[in-house]
Amino acid sequence: MDAALLKERELFKKRALAQPSIEKKVRKDEPANKKAKLPHKAKPNWSSPSPAPALDFRTATPTSSHKFSILHRVIEYLKKRHHRGDNYPLSLEDLLDEAKMTDMNQKHRLWLSSEALLKNAKVDVIDGNMFKFKPSLPISTRKELLVHLKKMERRGLGGIYEEQVEEALPEAKKHIDKLLELGKIIVLQRSDKKRVLHFKDTGTDSEYTVDDEFVKLWRSVAVDGIDDKTIDDYLQKQGISSMEHVGLRRVAQPKRKGSRKGKNFKKLNDHLNGVLEDYSEKK
Question: Which domains does the chain have, with CATH numbers?
Answer without folding.
Answer: 64-133 (1.10.10.10), 136-231 (1.10.10)
